[in-house]
Amino acid sequence: xxxxxxxxxxxxxxxxxxxxxxxxxxxxxxxxxxxxxxxxxxxxxxxxxxxxxxxxxxxxxxxxxxxxxxxxxxxxxxxxxxxxxxxxxxxxxxxxxxxxxxxxxxxxxxxxxxxxxxxxxxxxxxxxxxxxxxxxxxxxxxxxxxxxxxxxxxxxxxxxxxxxxxxxxxxxxxxxxxxxxxxxxxxxxxxxxxxxx
Length: 197
Description:
Elements: E1 2-8, E2 14-20, E3 51-59, E4 63-64, E5 70-81, E6 86-99, E7 106-110, E8 120-123, E9 136-146, E10 151-160, E11 170-173, E12 188-196
Antiparallel strand pairs: 1-2, 3-12, 4-11, 5-10, 6-9, 6-11, 6-12, 7-10, 8-9
């Protein structure tokens, strides 16, 4: 049996391809048109700005914190990067209560990026003058990371003060009703998008 399909290219044009019975098919050819009965393993071609992967991490465990000079707070897991020419966009928020150290060298890391201090900040409630256990504060992340690395890249977040002092963002990470009877269980979330360039 012979199958005829349309070969749609990135410029919107198309041309018929005849495929012989028993042929192994693959899609998104980098260039050219495979001959009938011929398999190909060409690299996929993606238009710039296309999201080709989304990874979501969530932590919902209430955790008591203590001060430390250097600390990895969350080893979230691995993001799988599909192609070497893409970039990763990391967004997220982490929730704390009973604020403590408001300047502490918070960082994020993906793969071999090293500890990155850009695109991450701590936001506090302006009425938290007494560091109330019931008032929430958060870390917010919004940054891009370009790397040719592919495969599984570990994602982690923590802090390290420049002056070597011991710090903690608050006494509790992901607070719940045990911190304030009105409170539901808070979660911390990170979302990473793989985007073509």
